[in-house]
Amino acid sequence: MFDGKTILVTGGTGSFGKELAKFILKKFKVKKLIIFSRDEFKQYEMSSQFKTPQYPIRYFIGDIRDRERLYRAFNGVDYVIHAAAMKHVLAAEYNPLEVVKTNIIGAENIVEAAIDNGVKKVIALSTDKAVSPLNLYGATKLAMEKIFVAAGAYVGGKDTKFSIVRYGNVVGSRGSVVPLFHKLIQSGIKDLPITDERMTRFWITMEESVELVLDALEESAGGEVFVPKIPSMKITDLARAVCSDCKFKFSGVRPGEKIHETLISEDEARTTIEYRPRGKDMFVIVPHMHFESKATAKYRGFKRLKEDFTYRSDTNDAWLTIEQMRTYIDGLIKNNSL
After folding, report:
1. Is the peptide bond before 96 cis (omega within 30 degrees of 0)?
2. Catalytic residue ranges
3. Is CB count within 10 Å lower at the N or C end of the chain?
4. Residue 102 near residue 56 (C-beta atoms within 8 A)
């Protein structure tokens, strides 16, 4: 599907964008991979890892707030993976309009530029925080999801499709707790900060998130929200996986933080199916608006989830052991990925 195609990644210099670039350039013979971001220094650093002309990769300075720049960047692009966002929860609370401009207005700019440039498919990265949002960041990502689903209403005669993938924090990525724990341990600190001993989270690796996005991009009919079936873990177990003899310092739940993650709410379960493309287990939240007929037709006949179903990290069927987490984290440390 991706051989001979041009793919653009917004926010492409982040942890996800780098792993995506590594995966795509290794697995496919793409015509061009465009890294679109607003940080020229991060692009410079990334270009030292993925050099041209050895790789068919291009670096495009731009901000998703700038619609005209997106129109220029999307010219000749087949697929867009939208990873750019303001993600810091507290920064969002203190700078609400800035987050709205990036996460909501930026999403609308991407929709307009993609349709008018004839992009085939666009897939956006969302978050568990978009489900029953407790903070502004989550609310803006929920709005982004709604914008992408509704985009099918005004595509008109064009064939651009918009879909979403939704998952939680990626293990080892910037902003996740593992690099923080590792840094504290390296500095000699043995009391690891944990907000609440009851806290649970879903577990997804960077490699898994990249494969999920590409699988969803290939499967998408337009308007779906793809949610991976992934295991859960306890934050205290994760801390023990990083440091078996460390103690915990409980600080209390922070403003805007949830004790458990939710990826599918009870209300969403009514329009959610279980889906298994090429052996990959996932949920698909099927759009129920009348204008999403292609997606509705594709998933017609699949059994919907029970109405009282919720996909939460504390009630999940699959759980990771401390040893399983330790094995993966040791691999990250060995590869200097933290």
Report:
1. no
2. 129
3. N
4. no
